[in-house]
Amino acid sequence: MSFLRRRKGKAENSQADDDSEETEKEHESRKKTTRRKRKEASANRWSCVSNCCWLVGVICSIWWFLLFLLNAMPASFPQYVTEAITGPVSDPPGVKLRKEGLTAKHPVVFVPGIVTGGLELWEGHSCADGLFRKRLWGGTFGELYKRPLCWVEHMSLDNETGLDPEGIRVRPVSGLVAADYFAPGYFVWAVLIANLARIGYEEKTMYMASYDWRLSFQNTEVRDQTLSRIKSNIELMVATNGGNKVVVLPHSMGVLYFLHFMKWVEAPAPMGGGGGSDWCAKHIKAVMNIGGPFLGVPKAVAGLFSIEAKDIAVARAFAPGVLDKDVFGLQTLQHMMRMTRTWDSTMSMIPKGGDTIWGGLDWSPEGNCNCNVKKVKNNDTNDVDPYRVNYGRMISFGKDVAETHSSKIERIDFRDAVKGHLLANATHCDVWTEYHEMGVGGVKAVADYKIYTAGSILDLLHFVAPKLMTRGDAHFSYGIADNLDDPKYEHYKYWSNPLETRLPNSPEMEIYSLYGVGIPTERAYVYKLTPAAECYIPFQIDTSADGGSDNPCLKGGVYSADGDETVPVLSAGFMCAKAWRGKTRFNPSGIRTFLREYDHAPPANLLEGRGTQSGAHVDIMGNFALIEDDQFRSLSNR
Asked: What is the C-alpha separation between 116 and 187, in angstroms, rounded?
């Protein structure tokens, strides 16, 4: 029996071993299956990243290879290729002028515009360690990509004072390098500087009047004494160049800044520079304004209202939510709005002159505008009447509102609307904008008013951006003076508005207005309400509003007029063509004014880069015709 028992036990053990082996096999099989699935999942997960990395690697390799070829090839090779494709390349303007016997005579002062001057960090918070005297604006913009929130924090000004936030000092770069290039390969003043150098100019006869373009004009003096430095440098240049007066070349917003300077330098201290009423007559030969927004630009309104322009509106429509929702953990448009609304200088470019200059509900100075891009040949007849555009309606809520006669539009005044009932839940917002304080009621009131002209734009901005406009009211004005003898116009807030101040008493001075034409330029906008969401900006340009072939002036929610892509002709040319022409109340000494328009011609091919005949707002700085023109010959001594 014991034998039988033993044999039975062995049988039981054998069966248990078999069961154990089967269990182990099943376990191994499951482990293999799990490992296989993990490998497959890993392959699927990394395939996209691998492809992206491979693509980036290929692009970088090609880029570095092309750079190697560029540096290895003879210096004349690019010119040889260009000439082979386009024909012989003409001499640069400076070479032509030198061949004509022109040499440097009058010192030159460059006044850069908004955003084109470099800014560098002198003091910052812990997130900006290692950035001392590194460019935050201009150059490669590397820090914008590496630490965007830190960059926004340091580029913003104090929302109450319009000056430096606590513990942050960002200052303008000095010297010609401040604005010769905006970014690598993207010239601003570099072409002008190079051509002037060819006729004998050098750094002691050229001065870049760099300033912190974020500040209000008077605050550049309060914080940095920039206006005093410009005054001292001009006096030094005149004294060390045989008494030859300077020629000043302001560009874009620099035109308004230098208008402010000419009033400041002659005004008594402490508000002004105390130079006396004849300072400009003694030190300035000519002011050659390039692309000057004398009367403001509608683009500034869109920027302050919804942080948009035509290109951003298109991108916002193409990828809804990417720019203004928390898709990547960064509400891009909200941060940009919060930052730019601390830059007081932007308010200097709000349209000036109200409805008198820019038009009302049912009229505009441009009148009927033929925006048809198809040109009519000389032997053809054009039976198509120009389409009438209500450019005076700078903002319209809806395309039908933009085109309907004002008598048929019911409007509800927004000025007394009660703000409240906060927008959608904003507790998770990265940044707080003033739109969150307006509430649903305030947003609806703005849309119900339906049409905004240049006269009501100021009320609109006071309603949607009260802090910004409170600071702006202390530094800028947008009206038309009835009586320039009124003592109130001695205040600095009026000095950058050519419609509320006089030119200097300097009859021998010359003032030029040089600008491009032939490019569709933003003039008015069709808006819509943005679908409600967390942390959203409630208004946006309605890119679906399009005039089609019947009205080519309206594309992507933007009405275009003639200009240089940024400044309409109305703003760039009106003062020299009308208000300053001859002896007027704005020009009592009869300073001679000259106006020159440059037709835009895009580059014929990629080898021409941004072209030598461009009329675009910045590219015109490399326009050969502008540099060769008579006004630039007056810089020189034949």
From this structure: 10
